[in-house]
């Protein structure tokens, strides 16, 4: 299976999904097309794919003390050498 | 006191990347505590090996290379020796298969781009090979150039493109398999058709 609706490129925004059994209650903007060109094996709508990934894998907050811990480790290395 | 060359290079070029290195390692190993430990080790290694870095080149790619090698050579070896593994791969295997996911069916209807599928993508990513996952993170989350990926992954530039393409296809395929396994979504269209 795929998430593709690439066989209906002319009506991507207005067409109903083949597998949906209910109305989507969320925002009614752009749908996602992760179809792949069979000849080039490239993602057809690469920008959408990348936006989709970035929106769903947002930056994770580093521990507040991480930088301080790194600096402490480096200071210990310097102290050993001194 | 004036900084010596090593300290200066480190502070000017390396230190600012600690959060992105942490993020990369978090996405690789799947938990924050191990990611923080690995980030510390990455920067310690960078500090010790700073003479191997040419100032003004590409600190981010160099750090990712160190981080990736640490993850694969040290972290994976430890986990393979039977130490407690808490990454997402294990979490995925332990999870309740009946977990009520929001619905991959929604992916092809209006609004899917704005919907939250982060958990599903993390699970699909965790099932990729380590190198594929690393490439996806670098290329598609952090906009690494092919040259940067080549440097970080120890790959020749002319192999990066095909490897990156395969990694993306693997991720999409994982998402598709997951949707089918979870929902029994039947669709006769093949990937890429």
Question: Explain this structure to me?
Answer:
The complex is a heterodimer of chains A (82) and B (193). Chain A is mainly α. Chain A has one domain. Chain B is mainly alpha-helical and 193 residues long. Helices cover 64% and strands 0% of the residues of chain B. The longest helix of chain B has 27 residues. Classes of the chains: A mainly alpha (82), B mainly alpha (193). Chains A and B meet through helix 1 and helix 2 of A and helix 2, helix 3, helix 6, helix 7 and helix 9 of B.
Integer average pLDDT of chain A: 72
Element-level helix/strand string of chain B: HHHHHHHHH
Strand content of chain A: under 5%
Helix and strand sequence of chain A: HH
Q: List the uncertain runs of chain A.
A: 1-28
What is the CATH architecture term of the largest domain in chain B? Answer: Orthogonal Bundle
The quaternary organization reads as: heterodimer
Number of helices of chain B: 9
Number of domains of chain A: 1
Report helical residue fraction of chain B. Answer: 55-70%
């Amino acid at each position: 299976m795929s998430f593709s609706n690439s066989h209906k490129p002319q009506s991507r925004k207005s067409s109903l999904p083949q597998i949906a059994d209910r109305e989507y209650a969320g925002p009614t903007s752009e749908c996602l097309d992760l179809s792949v060109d069979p000849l080039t094996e490239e993602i057809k709508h690469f920008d959408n794919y990348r936006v989709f990934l970035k929106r769903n894998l947002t930056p994770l907050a580093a521990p507040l003390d991480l930088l301080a811990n790194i600096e402490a480790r480096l200071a210990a290395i310097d102290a050993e050498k001194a | 006191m004036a900084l010596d060359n090593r300290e200066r290079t480190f502070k000017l070029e390396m230190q600012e990347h600690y959060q992105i290195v942490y993020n990369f390692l978090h996405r690789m190993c799947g938990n924050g505590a191990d990611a923080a430990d690995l980030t510390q080790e990455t920067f310690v290694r960078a500090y010790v090996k700073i003479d191997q870095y040419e100032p003004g080149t590409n600190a981010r790619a160099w750090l990712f290379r160190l981080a990736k090698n640490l993850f694969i050579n040290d972290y994976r070896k430890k986990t393979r020796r039977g130490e407690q593994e808490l990454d997402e791969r294990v979490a995925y295997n332990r999870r309740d298969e009946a977990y009520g996911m929001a619905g991959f069916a929604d992916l092809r209807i209006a609004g899917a781009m704005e919907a939250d599928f982060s958990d599903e993508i993390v699970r699909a990513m965790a099932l990729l090979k380590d190198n594929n996952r690393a490439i996806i993170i670098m290329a598609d989350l952090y906009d690494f150039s092919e040259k940067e990926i080549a440097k970080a992954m120890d790959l020749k530039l002319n192999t990066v493109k095909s490897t990156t393409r395969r990694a993306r296809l693997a991720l999409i395929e994982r998402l598709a398999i997951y949707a089918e396994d979870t929902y029994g979504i039947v669709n006769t269209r093949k990937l890429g058709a």
